């Protein structure tokens, strides 16, 4: 009950942030500024990631031991839960993108709407959210009870720390990170090296997930 | 079905929770495990159910080692500690969700189990509003509804009224006569002694007798 209230509270806070962010984006007077505010890392950190992780937490609620023992195999049950989460991620992003595309077409002339720019970012966001879903699951299966119980919160915190803390500090201290990222900062790097990097991180999280799922104690 | 527990030891974060357990269980019997809170009863059930990996020793299910050739014992129904359900669904919806994985029990059968346990299958009440006793009944139904051959039941009589406990005694005896294997725990020795053919006592992670 307490946990449900906490999740609900977080959703309300993030919902307010999201509405505020959407209104600010929509108030842009030109399509260019609209695009900039949509592609703004704060939108990703404070709206997209928390809302997505809330969905992941909802899916995790379904993975109870009576379900796992009926599936009969830890790896299979892990794979099923991951597939649910990846499908949810795709749907979530499609809904978000349909709003992103619809909103500017209402306000700006269609030829001014930066549709290509909006769609171009879809694969980056998609990969980043898949990694985020996998990381949340890894934390959920941690042997450390504190990490396991705060898994979804940590999954929201990591991109915040990376983008607003580590990356910003490194950039300010002169280490221009224009072509290299860590986990989530790849989303905001231009160039084709982004996709293999995100794919490698995604693959590593899957391999790690399947390794821990076979040996995990269900306490 | 035959279950052999051989030199089973489990350490969690440096604490010995099970120490050199050797036990055998076979179909057509009801086994009871008695012990105080923290004696290791639940952890032993978790090990037999394949939920935890032994630090040392092994659990054999019909000569197949658990956590190697088998992930979980086949055809197992279980309750471990507090019942885990989706609080935003009704009792019937929770049971249907579980039944949908194996498709061996129909909705009508689930409804009749619920009626047998004095629960209204048409109730719109979500699990969040269920009392502890009602949740326990749903937990018992999910453990037995697919006519599982192995039942691992941790404190199955918790929060139940006397009439339901008496009914469960009869149900469990019926299962034994059908040749199923039941392993139960309780910290009330009288529950176990009335019902079980074999009883073992646990203390500090060890089997005392």
Give a short summary of the structure.
The complex is a heterodimer of chains A (219) and B (209). With 219 residues, chain A is mostly helical. Chain A is built from 10 helices and no strands.
Write structural notes for this entry.
The complex is a heterodimer of chains A (219) and B (209). By secondary structure, chain A is mostly helical. Chain A has one domain (2-215). Chain A has helices spanning 2-26, 31-38, 41-61, 65-71, 74-107, 115-120, 122-140, 145-149, 151-172, 194-215. The longest helix of chain A is centred in the middle third of the chain and has 34 residues, at 74-107. Chain A starts with a helix and ends with a helix. With 209 residues, chain B is α/β, with parallel strands linked by helices. Chain B has a domain at 1-70 and 182-209: Rossmann fold (3-Layer(aba) Sandwich). Chain B has a six-stranded mixed sheet, with helices on both faces. In chain B, strand 1 (2-12) and strand 2 (15-26) form a beta hairpin. In chain B, helix 2 (91-102) packs parallel to helix 4 (132-144). The longest helix of chain B is centred in the last third of the chain and has 16 residues, at 162-177. The interface between A and B is medium-sized, with 18 and 23 residues.
């Amino acid at each position: 009950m307490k946990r449900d209230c906490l999740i609900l509270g977080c959703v309300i806070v993030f919902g307010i942030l999201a509405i505020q962010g959407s209104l600010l984006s929509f108030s842009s007077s030109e399509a260019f500024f609209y695009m900039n505010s949509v592609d703004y890392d704060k939108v990703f950190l404070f709206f997209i990631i928390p809302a997505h992780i809330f969905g992941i937490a909802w899916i995790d609620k379904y993975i109870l031991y009576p379900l796992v023992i009926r599936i009969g195999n830890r790896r299979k049950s892990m794979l099923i839960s991951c597939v649910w989460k990846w499908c949810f991620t795709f749907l979530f992003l499609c809904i978000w993108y349909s709003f992103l595309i619809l909103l500017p077409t209402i306000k700006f002339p269609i030829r001014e709407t930066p549709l290509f720019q909006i769609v171009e970012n879809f694969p980056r966001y998609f990969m980043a959210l898949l990694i985020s879903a996998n990381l949340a699951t890894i934390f959920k299966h941690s042997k450390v009870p504190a990490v396991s119980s705060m898994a979804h919160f940590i999954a929201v915190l990591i991109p915040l720390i990376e983008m607003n803390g580590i990356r910003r500090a490194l950039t300010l201290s002169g280490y221009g990170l224009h072509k290299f990222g860590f986990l989530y900062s790849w989303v905001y790097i231009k160039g084709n090296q982004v996709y293999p990097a995100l794919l490698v991180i995604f693959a590593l999280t899957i391999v790690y997930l399947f390794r821990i799922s076979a040996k995990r104690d269900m306490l | 079905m035959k279950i052999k527990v051989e030199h089973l030891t489990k350490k969690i974060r440096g604490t010995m929770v099970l120490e050199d357990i050797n036990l055998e269980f076979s179909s057509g019997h009801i086994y009871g495990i008695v012990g105080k809170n923290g004696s290791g009863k639940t952890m032993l059930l978790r090990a037999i159910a394949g939920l935890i990996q032994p630090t040392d020793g092994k659990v054999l299910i019909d000569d197949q080692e658990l956590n190697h050739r088998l992930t979980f014992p086949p055809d197992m129904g279980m309750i471990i500690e507090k019942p885990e359900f989706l609080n935003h669904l009704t009792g019937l919806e929770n049971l249907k969700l579980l039944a949908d994985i194996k498709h061996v029990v129909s909705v009508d059968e689930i409804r009749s189990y619920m009626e047998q346990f004095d629960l209204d299958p048409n109730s719109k009440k979500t699990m969040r509003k269920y009392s502890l006793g009602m949740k326990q009944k749903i937990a018992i139904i999910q453990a037995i509804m697919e006519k599982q051959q192995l039942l691992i039941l941790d404190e199955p009589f918790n929060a139940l009224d006397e009439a339901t406990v008496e009914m469960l005694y009869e149900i469990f005896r019926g299962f034994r006569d059908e040749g199923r294997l039941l392993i139960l725990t309780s910290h009330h020795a009288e529950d176990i002694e009335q019902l079980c053919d074999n009883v073992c006592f646990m203390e500090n992670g060890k089997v005392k007798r």
